[in-house]
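Narrative progress, year one. The postdoctoral researcher (J.K.) led the effort to move from monomer predictions toward full complexes, under supervision of the PI. The following entry was the first complex the group processed end to end, covering 258 residues in total.
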Amino acid sequence: MDNNAPLSRQSIAFGIALAIASVVNALIVVVKEKSPTVMNGMKAVTGHHWTTHSALVVALFLGLGGLFTVLRKGRGIEIAASRLIGTLVSGVVLAGVIIIGFYLFAD
Amino acid sequence: MNEIVLMAHVLFGLGCMVAAVWLFVDVLHASEANLGRIRALSWGAAGLMWLAFVIGGYWYVTSYKVDKAIILKGPWPFAHNIVMETKEHLVIMLLLLVTYLPIVAYNNLAASKEARTLMLWLSAIIAVTALAMDGEGGLIAMGVKVGLLPR
């Protein structure tokens, strides 16, 4: 890691991956609860829909983080720290709103 | 044994929350002197969270159905329909947040204000979310209790 860079390329890559994976996590909740086919499919993969769901989201986070780290021939993604923090917080908040809102109002 | 497994889940989750608060304070005063501790705490928090997640997940998949049936027949069905349903999905996001901690901790927090700011936001979000998860767990346990009380 370049000690002069404000943020490592891994920090940026996995931060963006986290925001995306959080929102995808929330969307999977809506899709599986509304679709018996998806729910049963997820149950069939590991024996329990929640286990499949968790594995998918963790794999997405790690996969996207690794991918974003090596983009642009290993230079990663360039983004201001303030924008990264904004993206991260927005992703987490949006995911929370979707999950809580769904179970409060739409399930 | 089920109850011991469940309490271990709570213990590790609380340990993660305490580590996150400790991290927040340490990062506020980040310097070369405490960088090693910040990194160790980050790994510690991540390890505790993974333990809490795996143990809790195991209990949820193997044993929760009994408690769920009690809750749904009792006076607090929301303890499952809203509280457990949100908890089991928000906690996946919490797992990602805590797994991300050691990655951010390996920036030069003493030299980089940007890295410190990111770490402060991250540890604060983790602490608040972990506290919320603990509260939800308490409500779920109460849902079982009130479901068992004579009416």
